[in-house]
Amino acid sequence: MAQKKIFTAKMGPKGQMTLPKEIRTALGIEDGDRVLLRIEDDGKVVLEKAIIIPASKKDGFHVQSD
């Protein structure tokens, strides 16, 4: 089994943190990009690069609401 890499980030006084470069590179996150944070039922937090679709291009997309 391949060993998983673990990274840490320090929380600043305003609740901000810097994602480690390896994480940004792996997710293709660049300056100004948005990220999606989701809390799973088991308490784990999933971080993904957010894909923003402008309102003018949403025709044909179905947005599911919970």
Task: Going across the biggest sheet, name each strand in turn.
Answer: 1-2
CATH topology-level name of one domain: Pemi-like Protein 1, Chain: D
* CATH architecture classification name of one domain: Ribbon
Shape: extended
Mean residue pLDDT: 86
Q: Work out the strand percent.
A: 15-25%
Structural class: alpha+beta
Mind describing the biggest β-sheet? 2 strands, antiparallel
Name the features.
66 residues; Pemi-like Protein 1, Chain: D; two-stranded antiparallel ribbon; 1 helix
Provide an overview of this structure.
This protein has a domain at 21-54: Pemi-like Protein 1, Chain: D (Ribbon), CATH 2.10.260.10. 11% of the residues lie in helices and 15% in strands. The chain is built from one helix and two strands; from the N terminus they run H-E-E. The chain has one helix at residues 21-27, and strands at residues 35-39, 45-49. Strands 1-2 form a two-stranded antiparallel sheet. The mean pLDDT is 86.
Helix and strand topology:
Layout: H1 21-27, E1 35-39, E2 45-49
Antiparallel strand pairs: 1-2
Q: What's this entry about, in short?
A:
With 66 residues, the chain is α+β, with helices and mostly antiparallel strands. The chain is 11% helix and 15% strand.
